[in-house]
Design brief:
alpha/beta, Alpha-Beta Plaits, 8 helices, 288 residues, seven-stranded mixed sheet, four-stranded antiparallel sheet, 2 domains, homotetramer
Chain lengths: 288, 288, 288, 288
């Protein structure tokens, strides 16, 4: 790893059992290595005495290189029995987008990607259908089709995993990908797969949530972005939003209106991830 | 029934199988009897060919008295095989409020009642606990305590029903009343009992929804006002709203924040009912 | 005009001084010509005794052709001294999009256009800069560049007007077009030019509203879509929305977040227009 | 000052020119005196190199008493040339409510006060009218009437100021108080007077904002809570919120709907103040 440390920011995400003096010691550490703290947010879950922290600091005057930061910090982290990681602004997360036939979430992400709203790279788009290839082509991003049937799923997923590994993918975004991933795939990318579900979870899990919403007669529809776990639609929630509807809206209207929610909610979840703002705390997320 | 027809408004709520010419005939009828239409809203559920209509008109120049309106309109309604009712602005709906120990929804309703936001009368408040009597006293509204145990429930409910009948109650509002009403009670007041549930239904039915919401890690909490049916928390929804929360909010915070939602959502549902805006359409509501 | 009347909907937009019997007579008219009313919304501004109405009806069983509808309805409209128009679902409004260098509003409109959310045609895009031509090319829409300087403005606008006339343009959408149109241009397309302003009007008129918002320290930013009149940012408002911000947001953040508002607010305003839902009532709009 | 330090929380609000190591030194200080940090939020305004910080810590194991904290911390604050203050959870802010004739904001505050949502004391209510005395009486809070005319204003304000001083008032809340305070009064309570204005500032300053909103034809109304400065409606904004309206709403409807906004926005601003969350930064506020 070679990097110019000018204008590089470091991000520490850190959790441990709560104890006095954690912030003092960590900020002292950053001060000593010449880091200038830009943003600091901490939270103590007092029921569970669970401490979590995100610090962003600028490394322009750092007295140690980024490549040494991990090993320099490790002893302090061990002292607190912490889970932690350090990310750098010049090491872009590598994101794979999975799609099927709907284009709205993909288009939204690509537009923001193009506007440089995200500090990520998108080396590939994967789909079980060829339909959205023209969009990938226009964006200059390789588009890989892996058709999935019940029979071919294991081998196709194996190929996908191999490809994702080869390309050093950090994050998988399911942008209305209409296939359930196997437990094997999910374990491979634990807390690294973001999905968009077209309802206000936990309401209307599973298929056809707009039809369910219509039939239940709710006065608002929603969308939920969450990490994918082996329990369908049960993973830790990252972001949700809703929209008011009325008795005049048909199921078709809900689908149309819901697209706007899906786009924006998935886009926000990806932004939080790309800014290293998310810590998974059991079945919940902390979004700093 | 004697009434001054000056400045009285009539409200027609009307549903029937869809057909051509319904609006034409009904508005023609109102025109002929000297009514001046103030507000008209119609909706056709095209899947089910279900027509619904609300018309409000002023009776200042009416050529027939309010007391004759029902029988005069009936032949037209029969022609369309309709369900319908006509209400008058000078016949206030008589509302009973049911409470337990939480006062926020009751206070909200009483404050709005006092501000004349609702065109209703509240002849009594019923509770299974004596705690909120001082609030009722301050408002000058009789407060009846019917303590409920598993054993006494049938007889206590029978007394409540008798009292509600005696006072010609049109609507029962459960303002955080912490008792499940019996099927018998519910049948007695079909589509005439409004409840406030402290979650975004259908998420988190049953008890402790804020605890459920906390544990699921949702990013928004909600409240839902609905008609009470025999299936707990499954009745037709009248109004819902939500509020954003974060990982910093404890269950106690959710309870506190949720109070604001419960108050406002129940208050709106009661406003819609008091303005004769709601038609129940199976498991759903039309709120004009 | 030849049209298949199967599945054609007609839309009447109608305003007049308030009087008894208007709805009755108009719905009677529609009934007699075999129209089936799908949607009806009326409003009486009681202060000004101003009546307004939108009716949508299906013409599948119409006893008169669409081409005769105007002259058949005219006598009734005269009786009420009305302003009115009738539109048909198979006569798509022809919309010209004006842009400068920002692409987000244009992209949003084109995506929805492509998804068939709007019942419109976009025969051309006009810009004072060549930058967005590739987007127009990808969408297969002619892109005309009219560079504007203080000196060339009158002649360039004259060319634009000629082109818009030639192409029978019904509506001009300023999708972050960074030029003030001359009074002459505005008069030519009275109530036919929709703008998006990047603030919650009437706050922050004129240039740099995000900078103004930052400096004033507001806790929410907004966007406003309005008809263009000769008074800058003073035209009748069609739609507005807002987004919460915090002290952490820089002007750059406001610009980025505001893009999402601008897109959605302009998109909604165009939807309302394309569905024939808007009546201008002096300095205000009625959006049915 | 005597206090039990068990379960007392301390709150530091701290601003200074930005520099490396501030957080490290302050958290080190808190660690050394046995404080357990519960919440820490910092912000650097990078344009102006302005650093701001809020830390809440528990003093159960504090090695120095609260009474010594100020002098112990002072040298560190001087090192950074800081503005700062330390507050304690067991020293309730003393709040005076000013009202005129509208009761909704007062009722809202008193209900929350009664629910212990605020960690404050309300030793008195001041009004220029006797109307709301019964509400104060019911809450057991002294109610002082100071009728104001143009002539009597200086002497009446002088009496008010004397009374506020005598009662050690920390904060004045104008809960729809319909009098403009004199510059003298405002200087006396600099950044200690919170007002609620019934519009989305900077839109519709001055009188009759709902009438202004109606006439401008906005699609949303708002309310704004801000600190009072000598420039009317120009003080630093603490909180804002909005509500959607339609062409059907009359001015009277806006007034009624706006009451809900005014109540909630003022209630939130008071909550932020009571939790020591607000720092005034020139014309803006930082709300941690």
């Amino acid at each position: 790893m070679t990097m110019s440390e000018n204008n590089v920011n470091a991000f520490l995400l850190f959790t441990c059992p709560d104890k006095n003096g954690i912030v003092a010691k960590i900020t002292q550490f950053i001060y000593k290595i010449g880091g200038n703290i830009i943003d600091l947010d901490e939270h103590v879950n007092q029921n569970q005495q669970f401490f979590s922290l995100r610090i962003a600091w600028n490394m322009s005057n750092s007295t140690i290189p980024a490549s040494k930061l991990h090993e320099t910090f490790e002893p302090l982290a061990k002292e607190f029995d912490a889970h932690w990681r350090i990310e750098f602004s010049n090491q872009k997360q590598r994101v794979a987008i999975f799609v099927s036939k709907y284009d709205h979430c993909l288009q939204e992400i690509l537009w923001r990607y193009n506007m440089s709203e995200y500090d990520i790279e998108i080396p590939l788009i994967i789909s079980n259908h060829p339909d959205l290839k023209p969009i990938a082509d226009a964006a200059g991003i390789p588009y890989h089709v892996f058709p999935i049937t019940k029979e071919t799923k294991p081998e196709q997923e194996a190929k996908e995993i191999a490809l994702l590994r080869e390309l050093n993918i950090d994050l998988v975004v399911l942008a209305r990908y209409m296939q359930v991933l196997s437990p094997n795939f999910i374990r491979e990318f634990k807390n690294k797969i973001i999905n968009i579900h077209h309802s206000f979870l936990p309401g209307f899990v599973g298929g056809n949530p707009y039809k369910q919403a219509y039939e239940r007669g709710v006065k608002m529809i929603g969308a939920t972005s969450h990490f994918v776990t082996e329990d369908l639609d049960e993973g830790p929630i990252i972001e949700q939003d809703i929209m008011r509807i009325t008795h005049k809206d048909t199921i078709k209207d809900l689908i149309r209106k819901g697209r706007d929610l899906e786009r924006i909610v998935l886009a926000r979840a990806l932004a939080y991830k790309s800014e290293h703002r998310i810590i998974v705390d059991g079945t919940r997320t902390i979004v700093f």
